[in-house]
Amino acid sequence: MIKKIKSPADLEKLQEVAKRRIDPEKPCIAFCTGTGCLAYGTQKLVDLFKQEIEKRHLGDSLYVRNTGCHGFCERGPMAVIYPQKIFYQHIKPEDVSEIIEKTVLAGDVIDRLLYEDPVTKTKIVKEDDVPFYKKQMRLVFGMNGLIEPTSIDDYLAIGGYSALAKALSRMKPQQVVDEVIAANLRGRGGGGFPAGWKWDATRKAQGDPKYVICNADEGDPGAYMDRSLLEGNPHCVLEGMVIGAYAIGSSHGYIYVRNEYPLAVKNITLAIEKAREFGLLGENILGTGFSFDVLINRGGGAFVCGESSALFASIEGRSGEPRAKYVHATDRGLYNKPTNLNNVETWANVPLIINNGAAWYAGIGTAKSKGTKIFSLVGKINNTGLVEVPMGITLREIIYEIGGGIPKGRKFKAVQTGGPSGGCIPEEHLDIPVDFDALTELGSMMGSGGMIVMDERNCMVDVAKYFLSFLEGESCGKCTPCREGVLQMRKILDRICEGNGTLADIDTLEWMGQAIADGSLCALGGSAPNPVLTTIRYFRDEYEAHIKEKRCPAGVCKALITYSIDPETCTGCHVCARICPTQAATGEKKAVHTINQETCIKCGACYESCKFDAVTVA
Amino acid sequence: MSEMVTLKIDGRQIQAPVGSTVIEAARDANIYIPNLCSNPELEPYGACRMCMVEIRHGKRTRLVAACIYEVSEGLEVKTDTERVNNVRRLVIELMLSRNPKHPTLLELARRHGVEGTRFEVDVRGCILCGQCVRTCREVVGVSAIGFEGRGTTRRVATPFNESPAECIACGSCAYICPVDVIPLKEKDGVRTIWKTDFPMLKCQSCGRTIAPQRQLEHFAKITDQSLDDLTKSCVHCR
Fold first, then answer.
1. A3 pLDDT exceeds 80?
2. In Å, how far is B143's CA from the nearest CA of chain A?
3. Measuring CA to CA, which residue among A415, A417, A379, A518 is closest to residue A190?
4. Is the CB of B152 less than 8 angstroms away from the CB of A476?
């Protein structure tokens, strides 16, 4: 049984012990074992590695570290080998013994496991030199690679809980609030509301107890930065929360995390237990007299429960429906008590601010958006993954320098930011500096940091329809504009995609969009029309092509396209005929093939499979 | 007397108690704000969005639901702006797509210059104002019915779609429904509601039916009387 840490000085001693435990010169292989890499089969690699180590009696000469997500999900399974920081990607089980033999023991680099720069075709040895990482500023997310999320010792070894000790022993609660205000930390969950103001309002509100909540109900399609933080560095989130609770004067906290994130639930549960054991959570934290404890509330996976008032309802045991926020949660939130709710990433930024000071933090970013933001870069992009960048970086830098551009040499069309209720931003605005206000001005938003890249083969009407369908399914159904309005907007888009739209439909959509935004009860409905409004704003010509010419320029909307084979380019390789599920594509081998329009179901399999680009869509 | 604030609705200066909502203040001042889910007997709910009004506080204007927005000193409310009417017209058209024929909705449409709905009609009748569910819970105090499903599949239902175990057949839900879609029938001393037959008790003096037995039992319990006392006479023969 570990003795509770009774003072900040005790904590420093323990951090020293934890640090000395690890010899920085001894080889260490850090596997990414985030959910993405586990899905690639990393667990098997780790097991094999451990078996090899045992077989060779190498237990004392190297470490194996199971870390959280490294971010470069495209390249998993992957590992970084310390102390040289060699970056290996797409590791297979058969590579394991060679890695031990050559790299760990002999210090040699295995060429085929290195990342190759797609532009210069040179192999890159070190993680820091990989372009994907080079342009990032991984203040929060970078810690993931250095620690095992299940080890509080690892977190202590990198200086974990120092910020808490500093806040509790050397700062008054109001000073902590003022520090966060001065840092201008804005809410990472979507709204971008200054966290310090919220803390201040909750601190000053009348009522007892006061609640502090971590919103980990991440639900945007394609976004997983909060999951990866909670999985990879749960103590950092927890430390932020305890600091916030101290500043606000709260003794009770909740982490509302969706149950579809089992690893995040597991790791944060363990972190809470360990923190309690060490006296970093619970009664009399660090011997300072301050007490605060946290409960985990697992959400059932309703998107709308990420909305604060619906989240409160869910914790209280009612169905997750929002209520009007005319009375702020900081005054009457959970159980009608003053409540401060911040998102996972917001909490994870707090220790950084306290450790390094508001001035340091405010030195990063743009005039009104400070610090870094983690984006999940997905869609038609070469380097899929999580990227942490300073506010103010341009979309072009994220997409082309970090993201490595669009696969297959296709043309960029739009990037959708802000999750399902964000907007689609076209090429012409790629050079804007990314911050809360600039994205809002373009009709989109920062949201929680989803970034979905689309290329010339994405139909923007179809994209708008996709996001609306998502929101239609996730609307709680309480208020009319959101429940019925989003449904009817989607039906109009269906009609346009089927070639039955009219030009008046575009006006109706725009009119409805404004009225739904104005009339909805919560932010879900309030922002639901964004994908439609921004695609009309930037891609009106595509809507008009569907309506006037009955044509889908991107070749997506089934009712409006036909696949055919260009006789000039067809080599008669027969691949299309083999793959066609309805035998619509036919032809003799080495002769020109054709597609029977009567039986073609427009699945696009021939189009995707033709190596000679002989299949055309129009 | 509670503390009062002064606010303006459509240019008219009125006073209202602190903590009251804009729609309550308007009602007291005889100013009409259309609504479908608001009811003075029920807690503020804010779902139908017919009662949207535009408010100004300092320089900013925004739309709020009058039935849940609380009055404050110096608040300026406008009930008839372009933005307000756009939301109301949308809501009416959307309601008509669920219930294209009810006189209440047609009258609202007429008042707002809506000539019918542009949207695909899928007749459901119920407009999900929730007055029935809330009345049952807040006024009757039994919660026999509730909402089922989410989003467009949301509907008012009994638990597990079975005969409602808690229902006392009082009929308040049917009575309060603004679009009359909850069937209630009485025949041969039996009241039928929520697809369930509830036998009614007769007056011991005149023999006329009084009310469903379950309702009288509920009433007996909360008023601490016996069922026998309650049926000795009725409104007709008392």
1. no
2. 14
3. A417
4. no
pLDDT band at B66 (very low <50, low <70, confident <90, very high): very high
The neighbouring-strand residues paired with A394 are A433
Mean of the per-residue pLDDT values of chain B: 94
For the cut 60, the answer to whether the pLDDT of residue A1 exceeds it is: no
ipTM of the complex: 0.93
Rounded to two decimals, what is the model's pTM? 0.90
Average pLDDT of the segment spanning A505-512: 96
Cα-based angle B215, B219, B225 (whole degrees, multiple of 5): 135
Specify which residues A213 forms β-bridges with.
Answer: A254, A341
DSSP for B100-167 reads S--HHHHHHHHHTT--S--SPP---------HHHHIIIIII-----EEESSGGG-EEE-GGGS--TT-
- Contact call for B89 and A323, based on CB within 8 A: no
Q: Helices then strands (H, E): number in chain B?
A: 7, 11
CB A328 within 8 A of CB A201: yes
- Quote the pLDDT of residue A324: 78
What DSSP character marks residue A522? Answer: S
| Contact list, B91 vs chain A (CB under 8 Å) | 480-481, 519
Amino acid at A583: Q
Q: What is the mean pLDDT of chain A?
A: 93
CA angle at A351 for the pair A179 and A283, rounded to the nearest 5°: 100
Measured between beta carbons, the chain B residues lying within 8 angstroms of A475 are: 150-152
Using alpha carbons, select from A174, A134, A140 the residue that is nearest to residue A158: A140
Q: Which has the minimum average pLDDT: A21-25, A517-521, B100-104?
A: A21-25
- Rounded to a whole number of angstroms, the distance between the first and last alpha carbons of chain B is 39
| pLDDT of B1 strictly over 60 | no
Whether the per-residue pLDDT at B181 is higher than 90: the answer is: yes
* Helix/strand number for chain A, H first, E second: 25, 20
Query: Would an 8 Å CB–CB cutoff place A301 in contact with chain B?
Result: no
What is the per-residue pLDDT across A30-88, written as a single tens digit (0 to 9) for each? 999 999 999 999 999 999 999 999 998 888 888 889 999 999 999 989 999 999 999 99
Q: Are A386 and A377 in contact (CB under 8 A)?
A: yes
A510 burial class (0-12, 13-18, 19+ CB within 10 angstroms)?
A: middle
Report percent pLDDT > 70 for chain A. Answer: 100
pLDDT at A420: 84
> Which chain B residues are within 8 Å of A506, Cβ to Cβ?
none
Residue of B nearest to A526 (CA): B63
- How far away is chain A from the Cα of B89, in angstroms, using its nearest Cα? 9
The CA angle A262-A451-A367, to the nearest 5 degrees, is 110
Place of tokens 């029920």: B42
Q: Which residues of A323-335 are buried (b: 16+ CB within 10 A; e: fewer)?
A: bbeeeebbbebbe
Nearest to B90 among A319, A481, A491 (CB): A481
Distance CA A167, CA A171 (A): 5
A326 at B interface, C-beta within 8 A: yes
Burial A246-276 (b: 16+ CB within 10 A, else e): bbbbbbbbbbbbbeebebbbebbebbbebbb
All residues of chain B having their beta carbon less than 8 Å from the beta carbon of residue A516 are 90
Q: Token digits for B128? A: 């999900």
Partner residue opposite A474 with nearest CB, options B52, B63, B151 = B151
Find the mean pLDDT for residues B184-212: 94
Q: Alpha-carbon distance A113 to A213, whole Å? A: 43
Q: Residue A131 has what pLDDT?
A: 92
Q: What is the pLDDT of residues A550-586, one digit of tens each?
A: 999 999 999 999 999 999 999 999 999 999 999 999 9
Chain centre to alpha carbon of residue A176: 28
Q: Which of B150, B153, B155 to mutate to test the interface with A (most CBs of A within 10 A)?
A: B150
